[in-house]
Each structure stands twice: as C-alpha cells, then as structure tokens.
Amino acid sequence: MTFAVSHTLRAFIAVRIAPPPPLRKIVLRLSQLGRAVRSVSPNAMHVTLKFLGDTSAESIPHVANVLNAATATASPMTVRLKGVGVFPRLDRPSVVWAGMEDAEPLIELARVLEAGLSPFGFEAERRPFQPHLTLARVKFKPPPELFELLDELAATDFGSVTIDAAELLQSEPRPDGPLYTTLATCEFTAEPREQM
Fold first, then answer.
1. What is the pTM of this model?
2. For labeling, which of 31, 93, 109, 139 is most exposed (least CB within 10 Å)?
3. Residue 7 is among the residues annotated as catalytic for this protein
4. What is the pLDDT of residues 100-136, one digit of tens each?
5. How many Cβ atoms from other residues are within 10 Å of residue 103's Cβ?
C-alpha cells in the first residue's frame, strides 16, 4: 500500500453509505431549512467507526494494518436506515441523524478496531458506539420546520444498504464542508455466517 499524507493529519475510520432515494429527499429538505442547518452531501455520507484525530504520518501504516485485520473478520452486511433524530438533545440539536437497525456486525467491527488500535496509543471511546448516519449539522437555533420534520420522520423506514468495506480517511476542513481523502480501503472478506 502507498500513502499520500503530510506529517500530521486528521484521520478517522468509517464505512461509506450511499443513501437510498427516500433518504436523499430528506437531505434535500434539510438543505432548504436555512443557514442554521447545513446538510451533508449524499456523496460524503459515512458512519464513523473510530475517530483518530490528529495522527502522525508514521502511524498510518499501523492503523491500516489494524483495519485490514479487523475487516478480515467481517463479512458484507445489510443494515436498515430507519428513523430520524438529533444529538445531543431535542431542545439543543447539533446533529441530525438517521438511525440504523440490524447494525450489530458494525458494532462488533468498531469493538475490534478499538481493541486493535489501543496498543498504538489511540484512546478508547468513553461512550458506547451508536451506529448512525449524520444527515445535517445544526449551527445555531434552527427553524420550527426542523422539529416538524423530526416529528414526521421519527419512525420512517428509508430502506436497506449493503456495506462491504471500511476506509481509513483523512479529513481536511473547507468552507463548504470537509474534504475526505481515502488513505486505505479494506473490503470485508470473511464468509457470511449461516443464519440459525
């Protein structure tokens, strides 16, 4: 593998998600709510498995090796995107997300990554991993329409997506949203488990 990196970079491990058409329509609606709500580009949507933060270029190959070993234990998975909510609280939203069902294999992959990365000095997350797809970020007090939308979509089923690889990504802040550069891609290569 070859890497195009600077001395220190902001990095994270994620799985990319191609949002189904019903969810793309919701992202479009969120983008029309004014300056307070900044929607995520559908082409940039992902679920972060492990945020690494400022990472030295020297440690990137080690991280890629851990990712490669972790994905070798994962098989392609299908998750369902269902419901819309916010973090941290409804009265003070900063992130609008779509929920994920049948995401246990993703939770297990995040756990394997945590264990594999801790010997390299990456701190374990304090909060349990909650798989979710960020749809928008709320910069300041949002319009009432956001809360109407949340109420309307609380239990909406947006369909299923298949996930078959994870990526090590570099994030560079830009005025129009972060630019993501793929440093390594590792496919899920384990055989699917037999259903009981």
1. 0.89
2. 139
3. no
4. 999 999 999 999 999 999 999 999 888 889 999 999 9
5. 22
Burial label, 15 (beta-carbon count in 10 A; 0-12, 13-18, 19+): buried
Residue pair 61/1 in contact (Cβ under 8 Å)? The answer is yes
Catalytic residue among 16, 29, 82, 132: 132
CA distances from 105 to 16, 76, 188 (A): 15, 9, 11
CATH architecture of the domain with residue range 9-171+180-187: Alpha-Beta Complex (3.90)
Q: How are beta strands 8-16 and 77-89 bridged, if at all?
A: unpaired
62 is catalytic: no
Q: How far apart are CA 4 and CA 167, in angstroms?
A: 14
Residue 153 CB burial class (10 angstroms; 0-12, 13-18, ≥19): buried
User: Would you list the domain boundaries of the chain?
Assistant: 9-171+180-187
